[in-house]
Specification:
By secondary structure, the chain is an alpha+beta fold. It is about 60% helix and about 20% strand. The protein has helices at about 5-25, 35-65, 75-85, 85-95, 105-120, 125-150, 165-180, 215-220; strands at about 95, 100, 155-160, 180-190, 200-210, 225-230. The longest helix is centred in the first third of the chain and has 31 residues, at about 35-65.
Length: about 230
């Protein structure tokens, strides 16, 4: 492999890794600009080493045909190890926090950058650049489409003051069912210093679709007979 071909592949690996890594760094993700560059360059280097070793093996066999029965080479071994081994880095970007999984997209971007790096190292320039541009579009443009048009749930805490508990619970359950709002948690706050303990305030933690306006939900809840006030906390 000629020296200028090596430099071209390393530069291209740096560019495509940096392109995808920049978007991850800009959105403050665990694996950012430098991480993606290193993964892509490392994959390209591994591929170029494998190609060089294969070429040297072929030259040895041509020079001495008797070695053909003793020497074997697998052109896909390095690439397979890169794709498999990159899993530990992807796992490190996945964070588990309060029941939610974060970092899957970054883990996927690290994996795809490694694959692109293999393509760069193999000399598939058009495929590598096209893939990098495609991945960048997915991360930037599709994220905006997803946020705007694909329904996702958001967690909202509602502090509610009410009158009668039994009727209130029935009414609010019917309301949430009609809106397909999922209740994650209910906290009733006890009032002390009275002859009889009464439930007058509670906090509902609910999952609401993004297309719902919180103001509209609160307004409709306030229309229920047993509810006095509703506010977000």
């Amino acid at each position: 492999m000629l020296w200028y071909d090596i430099l071209i592949r390393l530069a291209l690996a740096t560019f495509v890794g940096g392109l995808i890594g920049y978007e991850r760094e800009y959105t403050n993700r665990p694996a950012g600009f430098r991480t993606h560059i290193l993964v892509c360059v490392g994959a390209a280097v591994a591929t170029m080493v494998e190609i060089s070793m294969t070429n040297e093996t072929i030259k040895m066999i041509i020079a001495n045909p008797a070695l053909g029965a003793a020497i074997r080479t697998d052109t896909g071994r390095f690439g397979a190890q890169v794709i498999t081994g990159i899993g530990f880095l992807g796992a490190g970007t996945i964070l588990h926090e309060k029941g939610s999984i974060k970092g899957l997209t970054t883990a996927a971007s690290v994996w795809v950058v490694a694959c692109i790096g293999l393509g760069v190292g193999s000399g598939f320039y058009f495929l590598s650049v096209s893939s990098a541009v495609g991945v960048y579009i997915v991360l930037v443009v599709f994220k905006q489409i997803e946020s705007k048009y694909i329904d996702k749930l958001r967690t909202v805490k509602l502090e509610i003051k009410f009158k009668d508990k039994v009727q209130f619970v029935k009414d609010i359950e019917d309301f949430f069912d009609s809106k397909k709002i999922k209740v994650k948690r209910i906290e009733f706050i006890l009032e002390t210093g009275l002859e009889e303990v009464q439930y007058k305030k509670c906090v509902y933690t609910v999952l609401i679709a993004r297309y719902f306006k919180i103001e509209d939900i609160i307004q409709e809840l306030c229309g229920l007979e047993e509810i006095i006030t509703v506010s977000t906390i």
